[in-house]
Amino acid sequence: MKKILFVTSEAHPLIKTGGLADVCGSLPKALSELSQDIKLILPRYQALKITEDIRFLCSVRVDNRNVNILETRLPDSQVTVLLVDYPTYFNFPGNPYVDELGEPWLNNAERFGLFCKIAVEVAMDRAHLNWQPDIVHCNDWQSGLVPALLSLEYEPPKTVFTIHNMAYQGLFPKTAVYDLNIPGRLWHIAGLEFYDMLSFIKGGLVYADFITTVSPSYALEIQTTEFGYGLEGLLATRNASLGGIINGIDTEYWNPETDTYIAQTYSAATLNKKRLNKADVQLKFGLPVNDKVPLFSLIGRLVEQKGIDLLVECLPEMMTMNLQFVLLGSGDKVFEKQLQVLADLYPEKMAIRLGYDEALAHVIEAGADVFLMPSKFEPCGLNQMYSQRYGTIPIVRKTGGLADTVTDTLPETLVIGSASGLVFNEASAGALLEAIKRALILYSVPNIWKKMQVNAMSQDFSWQRSAEQYLALYENL
Ligand code: ADP
Ligand code: GLC
């Protein structure tokens, strides 16, 4: 049995802004089900949704600040959650990274710097918890200073750093080095410095014993200039300690047979019932209720990464086709506006909901026929897996985890029973439109479409296998 300290800035259902939370909520659970002793450490944000008992554990002093550590439990699990309680930094409305108006917290370097230092105190068993982890598993830049600071300790635990997204690096002006009291031994080009800025992510990339990313394809992509954001050289030097482990999904929370958010539960054997969910989506979005017209969908952050510009370019032509389109998302105000203009122009065919709505995400996954993910890059992506589990055919661009989890529908993949979606190559509106047209043709042949749905629904995306891969990695270290 390994003792694992799992360091993350978000974890579903406590706090979520994206897929990081889904993974950091479900992977620790899967590891604890493999009998591992795992504690998750998270800042105590005001927006946390705590449902279990919470108690005071201890107080730790770092950088002349007294920080409390509280303890609760991840709902429906044996996973202990340690909360870093420092109200001056975390007790404000907003999300982990931005305030209520969507502006990044001005003191993000201090906030996550302090969080990392407390994680180090716990990792070195200096927080009086009488618990010394064997492994410290860090996630994304917010936890990047942990492997760096641990590298200066005597006999530290082994460290794993998982990259969920290279596009976010936690870069701060050089003054942060002094503000955060970063030891001089870490401040150089082969350390935390990145073009005269303090880089949190480099703390993970340089100092972790092993680096993982969330799909095998993305592990290769980030070693190229296109996806490496200037860190591809560093990653190439760490090639022997870098690998991809594909994310799993929480197959209980995302289960069409038991989902309490959806109008009608169903399975691969009762796929005909899925149309009741389609009607529910059409009603909720104010679109004509019609079982025959194929319903396309998209849920996600409205940012460049997700290929929203390609979608916006395609939509006018899509609106001339026999289909409906619904979208749930929030993000870039320019995209939000462009989408709203189109939705107002085609109220009979397209409707959008701007904002974040967990329940509606389930309703859409259950009711749509097709799910679009034209991402420019996608470290893993979860919605293409949720979609397959709900018999909602994903259209994805061949990149990162999308390439690793969706099998294109071709005569040969239909024969061997693996066809589960549509995959296109080029990041262009033309290529996306071609895939949409292909989907419409396949949709018009009900027995082929049903075969794709059944293939998609029978895929195994559970955490079991991936959690075992992480465990094997911990053991090798
Ligand atoms: P990323 O982490 O890059 O945003 P993922 O595909 O890994 O992308 O995960 C996104 C997660 O966030 C999914 O669980 C998705 O359903 C959810 N999500 C994104 N936007 C919204 C929204 N507006 N409302 C509800 N859920 C959302
Ligand atoms: C990031 C990536 C996404 C991935 C998620 C969880 O947010 O953008 O592709 O699925 O992390 O690993």
Keywords:
single chain, 477 residues, alpha/beta, Rossmann fold, 9-stranded mixed β-sheet, 6-stranded parallel β-sheet, 19 helices, 18 strands, 19% strand, globular, binds adenosine-5'-diphosphate, binds alpha-D-glucopyranose
Question: What does this protein structure show overall?
Answer:
- The protein is of the alpha/beta class.
- The chain has 2 domains: 3-248 and 463-476, Glycogen Phosphorylase B (Rossmann fold); 268-457, Glycogen Phosphorylase B (Rossmann fold), CATH 3.40.50.2000.
- It contains 19 helices and 18 strands.
- The chain has helices spanning 19-33, 87-90, 108-123, 145-150, 175-179, 200-207, 216-221, 225-228, 232-237, 274-284, 308-318, 333-345, 358-367, 383-389, 400-405, 411-416, 429-443, 446-457, 464-476, and strands spanning 3-7, 37-43, 55-62, 65-73, 80-85, 135-139, 158-163, 171-172, 193-194, 197-199, 210-213, 242-244, 295-302, 324-331, 350-354, 370-373, 393-397, 422-424.
- It has a 9-stranded mixed sheet with strand order 3-4-5-2-1-6-7-11-12, sandwiched between helices.
- α11 (308-318) packs parallel to α12.
- The mean pLDDT is 97.
- Bound molecules: adenosine-5'-diphosphate (ADP) and alpha-D-glucopyranose.
- Residues 18-20, 23, 164-165, 214, 247, 378-382, 401 line the site of alpha-D-glucopyranose.
The gist of it:
The protein is α/β, with parallel strands linked by helices and 477 residues long.
What is the tally of beta strands?
18
Under CATH, the homologous superfamily of the largest domain reads Glycogen Phosphorylase B
Task: Work out the strand percent.
Answer: 15-25%
Q: What fold name goes in the CATH topology slot of the largest domain?
A: Rossmann fold
Name of the CATH class of the largest domain: Alpha Beta
| Largest sheet geometry | 9 strands, mixed
Helix content: 25-40%
- Poorly predicted segments: none
Indicate how many domains the architecture comprises: 2
Small molecules bound in the structure, each named once: adenosine-5'-diphosphate, alpha-D-glucopyranose
Structure classification: alpha/beta
Give the distance, in angstroms, between the N- and C-terminal Cα atoms. Answer: 14 Å
Molecular shape: globular
Number of helices: 19
Overall mean pLDDT stands at 97
CATH architecture of the largest domain: 3-Layer(aba) Sandwich
Strand order of the largest sheet: 3-4-5-2-1-6-7-11-12
Backbone CA Rg: 23 Å
